[in-house]
């Protein structure tokens, strides 16, 4: 023993003392599914692209976004953003303005001319897409990115489908749509305009296609029998909105009545106002709460002076007048006639009662199941009953809007790809939900939502200028940074900082690991994680 | 620290953030931090004192560019970090007696002065027992002579090392091993105890500050401020004790936050006896929200409980809010 007086042991560091053995629970880093992502019909990784936008790297954010959706500038204008309805931030102050950031990124991409990355390798397979609407364009884009040769056959004179022929310019300026379509074409998608596919089987054979995705949309106006005098002027909404695009201004008169309660009815009424109608009246059989149109649009329409006759139906149309019957809702919420009538002066009546799909191109294809005017598909794969034939958008059973259609296109493309390769695409297991209860709201500073400016009312009703303005770069950054990053590490270093045992290691920016030799399992890191990205898991004994 | 919020996701409330400019991040967010109190120490799960001590000493080490000597009083911090012959400390560190950390620090400072080493700095540290009770005479002397030492008190409000006895920093109403929750006025008595930050201010020393382990930006800024000054300086850090307070180990930081947000523990700075800054309450909470998480206050709640004691504690918090101007 060669030690100083009264010293019997070698001095040493406490590192020899592995306090991890005290632990009964261990912290584990996790990723959770944020409610925005979970809600998005297009399957966007919203939290993921917002995360990139937060650092001001808008190109990285845009590239992350377009992994799932090739139309962000369109989305940022016409999507009904269910994501914001699900946003956890609404429980703190207001939901993050996801839609406005998406639009900002989409507009930046157009302004700066960002292009899609070309496919890594050609597959040698050919796919026919019928219809250049949101669903067809989305499918074409994804298929092309996967290396397939894609031809899109579009019956119309321009691409866009209902985005062009159903959504008015004041909501979606055509230069925005054109720019995003052009970018998909630039990726190497062959777009054949003015090409109607009359028989899908023949078209596939003629072009030697290996698979097809059908997305012809719902362009036929639903009919309703309305007793009418000879000189009554009755139009349908689909034809009216389409004629706006073809450059032929429809003659509607000063007083316009619109029959229906969906978004199309509002589009028509707002368009009529812009065409110079002094009165645009929507006649709807139910009440506002039961109106299928989206609140935001109803709000904007009312602001612009569109009137609505609730609980009313058109009983008879004459030149210059309509006979309206008052309705009441029965216990099931169904409108019932009351026998009370009134007259409404109207120079024209536009029917906006929904749309049907022209399924003629499917004639003679074996194995198909057509029900309620739409094609049934396997909801997992979007494949119809006929092998190799996939369908999506308005022609399959689903909610009819642009985002849903885009989502169908993506899903179908992935399964077409798997089908072409002779494999099946297994559904990826989803992360557990990133619930608000898992967050530590203390860490989020107060930051109210930035509202987008709107065109002044006076200028809204006499032209087709875009109503909703975009965000400035500063505002977009602010808005992106309001994201709580629910359930996904936001790289705040809190876990690293609050561990009393230095057991959290910071490997690289944004990467942490727990040193289980020293972690005592106190749980501070998990509780003080702002975004709930750490689970405490019981140790196996 | 009234810092304007520059980053809207988490403000500056988190330890760091990838989007914060480097100079606004804390020492604790840095991969290069000193880890002055190393892993393998034997503090309890979720120990506030281990947390506070690392924050403070790492920040002081950086401010002193690594040239720092620590004197340490007897107490939890000393016992869990240095069971002979093992040490968790990664700086020159000396322990002598329970009551004389301030005196030992003073001696080191004097020796350095004699040797002409102005570059080497000294901190002395201890728990509230070793500071407010047993070491109080030495500390007051250090203040009175204006010795060039930063004294840091890690206040866990009791003698936790020896089995949770009452100290003169134990808050009224708290149950300890020596102030049981029995009788008509259970727990620590009201109207006694010492408020050492105020006593330190009465010595008119260059710098006095309070802080908690819930606000790193604030705590580190105060260490930095203290290290920029010479003479006697005093930093009083609230460090919740899961064991002694009867709280969950994961609630340490939350308790520190609630202590401040309820007004029970005012966070402020003073120079030469004059109050210079207070940390405003961000989201005021009732005192009960802070007390309810701790078993040492369990006798105040339930049936019949002690609503009158609860009211008295709340009144004390309200008084702090008025006295220090904790709300805008």
From TrEMBL, chain A:
In terms of PROSITE patterns, this protein maps to: 4FE4S_FER_1, 4FE4S_FER_2
Q: Which Pfam families match?
A: Fer4, Fer4_20, Pyr_redox_2
Domain named 4Fe-4S ferredoxin-type is located at 510-539
Q: Which UniProt keywords apply?
A: Iron, Iron-sulfur, Metal-binding, Pyruvate
Q: Which GO terms describe its molecular function?
A: iron-sulfur cluster binding; metal ion binding; oxidoreductase activity
State the source organism's domain of life: Bacteria
Entries under PANTHER family matching the protein: GLUTAMATE SYNTHASE [NADPH] SMALL CHAIN, GLUTAMATE SYNTHASE [NADPH] SMALL CHAIN-RELATED
**Name of protein:** Putative pyruvate ferredoxin oxidoreductase delta subunit PorD
Q: Give the gene symbol.
A: porD
């Amino acid at each position: 023993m060669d030690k100083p007086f009264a010293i019997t042991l070698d001095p040493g560091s406490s590192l020899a003392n592995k306090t991890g053995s005290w632990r009964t629970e261990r912290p584990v880093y996790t990723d959770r599914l944020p409610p925005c992502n979970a809600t998005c019909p297009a399957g966007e990784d919203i939290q993921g692209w917002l995360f990139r936008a937060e650092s001001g790297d808008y190109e990285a954010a845009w590239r992350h976004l377009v992994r799932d959706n090739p139309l962000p500038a369109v989305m940022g204008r016409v999507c009904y953003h269910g994501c914001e309805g699900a946003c956890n931030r609404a429980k703190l102050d207001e939901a993050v303005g996801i839609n406005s950031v998406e639009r900002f990124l989409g507009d930046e991409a157009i302004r700066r001319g960002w292009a899609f990355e070309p496919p890594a390798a050609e597959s040698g397979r050919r796919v026919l897409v019928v219809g250049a609407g949101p669903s067809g364009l989305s499918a074409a884009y994804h298929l092309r990115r996967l290396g397939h040769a894609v031809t899109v056959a579009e019956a119309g004179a321009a691409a866009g489908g209902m985005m062009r022929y159903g959504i008015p310019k004041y909501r979606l300026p055509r230069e925005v749509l054109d720019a995003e379509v052009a970018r998909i074409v630039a990726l190497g998608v062959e777009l054949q305009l003015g090409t109607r596919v009359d028989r899908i089987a023949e078209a596939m054979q003629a072009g030697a296609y290996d698979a097809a995705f059908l997305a012809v949309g719902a362009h036929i106006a639903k009919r309703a029998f309305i007793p009418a005098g000879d000189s009554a002027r009755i139009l349908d909404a689909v034809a009216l909105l389409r004629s706006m695009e073809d450059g032929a201004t429809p003659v509607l008169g000063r007083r316009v009545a619109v029959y229906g309660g969906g978004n199309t009815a509002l589009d028509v009424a707002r368009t009529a106002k812009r065409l110079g109608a002094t009165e645009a009246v929507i006649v709807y059989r139910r009440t506002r709460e039961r109106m299928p149109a989206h609140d935001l649009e109803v709000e904007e329409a009312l602001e612009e002076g569109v009137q609505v006759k609730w609980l009313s139906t058109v009983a008879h149309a004459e030149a210059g007048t309509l006979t309206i019957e008052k309705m009441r809702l029965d216990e099931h919420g169904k409108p019932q006639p009351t026998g009370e009538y009134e007259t409404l002066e109207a120079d024209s009546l536009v029917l906006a009662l929904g749309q049907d799909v022209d399924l003629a191109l499917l004639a003679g294809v074996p194995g198909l199941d057509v029900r309620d005017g739409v094609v049934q598909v396997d909801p997992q794969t979007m494949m119809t009953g006929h092998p190799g034939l996939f369908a999506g958008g308005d022609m399959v059973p689903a909610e009819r809007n642009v985002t849903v259609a885009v989502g169908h296109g993506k899903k179908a493309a992935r399964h077409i790809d798997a089908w072409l390769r002779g494999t099946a695409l297994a559904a990826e297991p989803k992360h557990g939900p990133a619930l608000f209860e898992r967050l530590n709201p203390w860490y989020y500073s107060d930051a109210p939502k930035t509202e987008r400016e709107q065109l002044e009312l006076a200028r809204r009703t006499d032209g087709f200028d875009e109503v909703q303005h975009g965000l400035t770069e500063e505002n977009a950054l602010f808005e992106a940074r309001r994201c709580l990053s629910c359930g996904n590490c936001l790289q705040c270093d809190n876990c690293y900082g609050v561990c009393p045992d230095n057991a959290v290691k910071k490997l690289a920016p944004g990467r942490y690991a727990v040193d289980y030799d020293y972690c005592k399992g106190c749980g501070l890191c998990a509780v003080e994680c702002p975004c709930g990205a750490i689970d405490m898991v019981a140790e196996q004994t | 620290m009234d810092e304007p919020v520059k980053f809207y996701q988490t403000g500056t409330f988190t330890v760091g953030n990838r989007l914060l400019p480097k100079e606004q991040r804390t020492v604790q967010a840095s991969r290069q931090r000193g880890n002055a109190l190393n892993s393998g120490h034997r503090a309890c799960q979720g120990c506030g004192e281990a947390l506070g001590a690392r924050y403070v000493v790492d920040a002081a080490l950086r401010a002193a560019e690594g040239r720092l000597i620590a004197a340490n009083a007897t107490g939890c911090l000393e016992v869990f970090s240095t069971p002979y012959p093992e040490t968790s400390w990664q700086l020159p560190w000396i322990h002598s007696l329970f009551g004389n950390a301030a005196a030992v620090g003073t001696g080191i400072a004097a020796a350095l002065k004699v040797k002409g080493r102005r570059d080497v700095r000294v901190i002395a540290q201890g728990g509230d027992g070793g500071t407010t009770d047993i070491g109080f005479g030495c500390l007051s002397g250090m203040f009175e002579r204006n010795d060039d030492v930063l004294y840091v008190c890690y206040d866990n409000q009791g003698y936790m090392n020896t089995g949770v006895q009452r100290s003169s920093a134990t808050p009224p109403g708290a149950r300890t091993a020596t102030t049981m929750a029995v009788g008509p006025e259970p727990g620590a008595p009201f109207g006694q105890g010492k408020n050492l930050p105020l006593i330190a201010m009465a010595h008119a020393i260059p710098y006095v500050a309070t802080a908690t382990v819930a606000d790193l930006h604030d705590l580190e800024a105060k260490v930095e401020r203290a290290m920029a000054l010479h003479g006697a300086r005093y930093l009083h850090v609230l460090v919740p004790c899961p064991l002694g307070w009867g709280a969950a180990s994961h609630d340490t930081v939350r308790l520190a936050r609630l202590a401040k947000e309820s007004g029970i523990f005012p966070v402020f700075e003073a120079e030469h006896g004059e109050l210079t800054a207070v940390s405003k309450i961000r989201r005021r909470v009732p005192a009960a929200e802070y007390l309810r998480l701790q078993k040492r206050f369990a006798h105040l709640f339930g049936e019949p409980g002690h609503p009158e004691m609860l009211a008295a504690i709340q009144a004390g918090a309200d008084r702090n809010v008025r006295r220090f101007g904790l709300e805008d």
